[in-house]
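Why do we bother with holo predictions? Because pocket geometry can differ from the apo form. Keep that in mind while you read this record for pyridoxal-5'-phosphate.
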Amino acid sequence: MQSNTQLPEADTRCLKAWAPGALRPILDPAVAEVVYSSPQSLLDMVGRYGSPLNIVWPHILKQNVEALRRVLRAHQVRYDVFYGAKVNKSQALVRAAVEAGIGVDVSSVYEMRDALRAGVDPARLCATGPAKTREFHAELIANAALISVDSAEELTDLEACLHRAAHGSVARVLLRYRPAASSASRFGMGGDELLQCLRQLSEQKHRVAFEGFHFHLGGYGFEPRAQAVRELTRYVETARELGLDPKIIDIGGGLPIRYVDADVYEAFLRAQSGDDYRTGKVPESFYPYGGRMDACEWLDKLLAAPCVDGLSIAGYLNTQQLTLALEPGRSLADQSAVSVFRVTRVKQLASGRPVVFVEGSSFSACETWFASEFLVDPVLISRAAEERAVRAYIAGHSCLDDDVITNRLVAFNTMPQAGDLLVYANTAGYQMDLLENEFHRHPMPRRVAVIYDAAGAPVVSPDDRME
Ligand SMILES: Cc1ncc(COP(=O)(O)O)c(C=O)c1O
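The structure, written out:
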């Protein structure tokens, strides 16, 4: 019989997940179970599918839908949630949204076709974006989907499209408003243009069905959204005076999520300096990784915020019989995926510091390309035995000097080694696949989905082959 001591060393040493000491990621229990209790399964998956590997848990999106629903029900508003599919290319997440009974916010003909393949009711599609193509308009009209019209120019194009469409076709539209505080934005319409469109729509009700107003703002505050709703109240009145029947106010996305503990995060921000970065510079902006408010608290505050005539936003929507539509992307994908990179090599630099090279690139973890950084530390899965504090930045496998997963010197509790894994948590929201490509002819990173069978056992299957 072969004794353990004759097996290769890598097989005998204990594989362990080393939780980061500083910016430790918040993990959904299902994800934590895999990362901390079953790290070997991650090693096996990366062995099978390659590095980097994106792993998606679709049931978590459904949990997020339910959590938002509880807030909406508590305020007794009529609501319609559309999953902002742009946040991630996973078809399994789109399917989860449809199975959770919500609609899908689509920004291209391809996202729209994904959602239709996932079985969405076409009437529960909402198309946003300022540059929809003729083909996209035509398919939206054919599917009787809701179209957020971004400009008077788009309305003209849509009307032209209706002339080419099947007899009797009707376009269902929202008008996208550009709130006063965003006057320089290229998205949406200011007051005059909005009025012009409303007048136009009041004259062609048989071909274009006006259903209400839309906006989407950058940033994550609820107050600018509350202000935008206040501004829209006068256009709701005007629309009615023109004989139109607005039914929806769609407030877009931008609900914040929390990646790390808020106190830890704030302490980290206060303490960090250029010495913590290989560039010697602290980036100017970060996603609010440790924000005080999560998506549900945010929505609750928005609905309770003052609107007009002494009413809260919820009170206003209810007295006006308006439906609140939302298009959350990041907040519905919260916690639903991780990205796992295998360590290729650790190299000592002239500075005396190590750099950790991984199989994969910053295109699969794209914060540095936006002059920002992950302020969430990766969990190290390693067979290392001894504790040893070490700080290192993490580099991708390309020849670009800027290809770094993080410029920040990440504090490890042990020295990473070739073959170890770095698990970046909660990457579903715009991070894992926004910029991915085949640079250097590396194949596209794979994505797998974890679902659970009737006995509760995890079943892993590919989630990256689009028809
Ligand atoms: C029109 C529109 N709706 C919804 C979203 C989703 O935003 P988030 O992922 O921040 O919720 C976006 C994001 O850019 C958007 O442009």
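The longest helix spans residues 223-241.
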